[in-house]
Write a structure and sequence with these properties.
Number of domains: 1
Largest sheet: none
Distance between the termini: 48 Å
Oligomer: single chain
Strand content: under 5%
Number of strands: 0
Radius of gyration: 17 Å
């Protein structure tokens, strides 16, 4: 069981490094190797993820403020997600499982509320970045 968990962790880290390398070397604003947002194509409105590919590319190149213009929520969440993954790989198994599950549920519900509010706000006419 422990070997399987270690293998999954190594596979996840390898895939993550590959994805980050892809975003580092290819600019989504210029390359045809990235998919457009299907929600935006169908409705003309921005989803919470619109601009994330450009924001990640810019973030990886140290252009934080340009990334904020593409998708501010993504740029804010990149370090948060990094810390969460580091915490997970550093030994979340040592914590009380029941407390950890409650924390995860609260975090997920909170993120869903933030995403819904962001989705609505960025499609308002007063939204500053669109």
């Amino acid at each position: 069981m422990r070997e399987l968990r270690a293998a999954r962790s190594i596979l996840f880290l390898a895939v993550s490094a590959s994805v980050l390398a892809w975003f580092y070397f290819f600019d989504p604003a210029k390359a045809d190797a990235f998919l457009p947002c299907p929600f935006r194509l169908a409705t003309g409105w921005s989803c919470p993820g619109c601009g994330t590919q450009r924001a990640v590319h810019l973030f990886l190149h140290g252009e934080i403020f340009a990334g904020l213009r593409s998708n501010p929520l993504s740029v804010i969440l990149i370090p948060v997600v990094g810390v969460l993954f580091a915490r997970h790989f550093a030994g979340s198994a040592l914590r009380n499982r029941q407390t950890n599950n409650r924390t995860n549920t609260s975090f997920i519900v909170g993120m869903l509320v933030v995403l819904a509010a962001y989705w609505i706000a960025r499609n308002m006419p007063w939204w500053p970045w669109m």
